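Give me the fold.
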Amino acid sequence: MVKKLLLTALLVLPLTVQAVELKKNNISGDLNWSVQATWPIPAKPLGFVQSLDNKKVFVLGADAKVYIFNPEGKKLGELPVDPDTTAIDIAPRGEMIFLLNGKTNTYTAIDISFTQKIDIAGAPVKGKDTAPVTLVVFSDFECPWCGKMEPILEQLFAANQDKLRIVFKHMPLPMHQQAEPAALAAIAAQKQNKFWEMHDALFQVTTWTPATIEEIAQKTGLNMERFRADISSPETQMQLAKDKSDAQNADVSATPSLFINGRPVRERSPMALQAMIDEAFALAKGSK
């Protein structure tokens, strides 16, 4: 028995020393490496997965919880799961969690999202400032899907004028050549209190040319001298840059992207949107 214990110790010892040396030297043959991050986990980990954009880490704990972290180890949230959950996976950007239960032999898919705090200061607003439900849309005037969303938003606004306000945030996509000039033009029109008139006209464009935007500005009745000065001003550029930054902070990567009282919208049908508005209104009313 003593011989077996000594043999086991001799086998383990060289491996332990080698591991310490490798960590210290960061070299193993042709392999060079360095630790990028180490942070504690609240429970014994049973499994983990990381989103493809490297923004979230999901850890399945032995305490029947899934812990969600950012890459620096800041805990973003946690959710309870069945104690017999044995495996975890996620959708590419972490918008869904997939779990396997080894006792009941079941698969479970869970939709998750994080409520975002979006700064709407300075953004154009349609509706009453006191409306308890705020729908923020990040949009691109040259995006065809954004254009198709506009009639739905108008329908929702008409049906919910006492409880809904709509906030427009610019997110011109790089693949659309006229999207950023159009966004700057809309901001310049906002300075003359004609944002929504410019907004509606820009979404009617089917063929974009460099002259299109100025033609629309003239038809909208803008003071063209002021418009030309505002469209290229640092203040206008800063407002657009702020919207882009707000989009990035809210984890927006496509247009149109909608948020209702900070909650990301997954299903964009009129019925689903109305259900979210009703739910947000009931929550806001109940919190008073």
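Residues 1-22 have pLDDT under 50 and may be disordered.
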